[in-house]
Design a protein that fits this description.
With about 350 residues, this protein is an alpha/beta fold. The chain has ten helices and ten strands.
Length: about 350
């Protein structure tokens, strides 16, 4: 008797799901560092391991990992994660764990001039070289003798959040320019103030707001004279997810036909990167894009998990709004992992 294609497909899906559950049950999450390429910072790598997990402290975070544990074969695919401005690998370790439990190796480059130890060059100076650092991270993991035999690098996934989301959009085929950012800030300095000036100041509704906007626009016009259109193509990257990305400086026509499958995760109560100027603008331009998740009541820092200890203006811009429940985040992570499974695995 010939089995119908629908029944065959269903049985295959069940078999794959059971295999993934069995892998997740036996896999330990390993953690190591790989030397960066061409003077880059080291790359943190999470991966399936046969080692024994122990508690590892990194700053304020405690991770249950097999530090330097022996790698074991997963699904053969790599996902690169690009952190936000002033970020690090640890605030994305819950997502990394979910990806590892699905068989992925996860590489997190520490972006020069825009990380927790070295925050001196955020914005366009960092955005110019971040995509190249992602390419270098793929190279670095691919030549490491521990991982080279376990990975096929013809299809690599890429996830980025905030400034890392900008990196993700660039690697999906987006073209951006400082001049577009300048035009955006000139038109929307009041409504999108902190995406234009970062943490330098805030609008308080007081008598000095007018002066703050005037000074900000003077600095923006001085710094953002570059009319160059920037892009970066790495043919190995085959699927991209951008979380709450900085996007106001992109030529939106570049998203009409993304180079690779592109998905977005959004947060409706993001007050740092106001969605209508950033993520929603991309979704409107990109009809092939997948709106993977809109985090209920989520703010800009919703995707940081574990959430870092922050204070002052940073806490105001990133903090969880009233009514936000972090219990929704594991499901968002699973959706991201499913997107990469569907696009990267045979």
């Amino acid at each position: 008797m010939v089995m119908s294609s629908r029944i065959f497909h269903a049985r295959c899906c069940v078999a794959v799901a059971l295999a993934l559950l069995a892998f997740a049950a036996r896999a330990t999450v390993g953690l190591t560092e790989v030397a960066g390429a061409d003077g880059d910072n080291p790359v943190t790598v999470f991966y399936p391991s046969s080692g024994q997990a122990q508690t590892l402290t990194r700053g304020p975070f405690k991770l249950d990992v097999a530090f330097q544990g022996a790698p074991t074969r997963g699904n053969g695919r790599l996902v690169v994660v690009s952190h936000g401005s002033g970020g690090n690998a640890w605030v994305h370790s819950d997502l990394a764990r979910t990806l590892v439990e699905q068989g992925f190796v996860v590489a997190l480059p520490l972006h020069k001039g825009d990380n927790f130890n070295d925050p001196g060059e955020p914005g366009p100076p960092s955005w110019r070289h971040r995509p190249v650092e992602v390419t270098h991270a793929i190279d670095a993991v691919g030549r490491d003798p521990r991982f080279a035999p376990l990975l096929a690098l013809d299809k690599v996934g890429m996830y980025g959040m905030s400034a890392g989301g900008h990196t993700a959009l660039t690697l999906a085929g987006g073209r951006w320019s400082p001049a577009i950012m300048k035009a955006h800030c000139e038109a929307h300095i009041a409504e999108d103030f902190n995406s234009c000036v970062g943490l330098a100041s805030r609008l308080s509704g007081g008598i000095f707001d007018g002066m703050k906007k005037t000074i900000a626009l003077w600095a923006i016009r001085y710094r953002l004279k570059d009319t160059t259109s920037y892009s970066h193509n790495d043919p190995r990257i085959a699927a991209v997810v951008a979380g709450v990305p900085y996007a106001a400086d992109f030529d939106m026509t570049s998203f009409e036909k993304p180079r690779v499958p592109l998905a977005l995760v959004t947060a409706p109560k993001d007050i740092w990167l106001v969605p209508r100027f950033h993520s929603e603008k991309v979704l409107k331009a990109c009809t092939p894009c997948v709106h993977l998740a809109d985090i209920p009541n989520g703010g800009h820092g919703a995707l940081l998990s574990p959430y870092p200890p922050v204070s002052g203006l940073l806490a105001e811009l990133m903090g969880d709004p009233p009514g936000f429940d972090r219990a929704v985040l594991p499901e968002v992570d699973r959706k991201i992992a499913a997107f990469f499974r569907e696009r990267l695995l045979p």
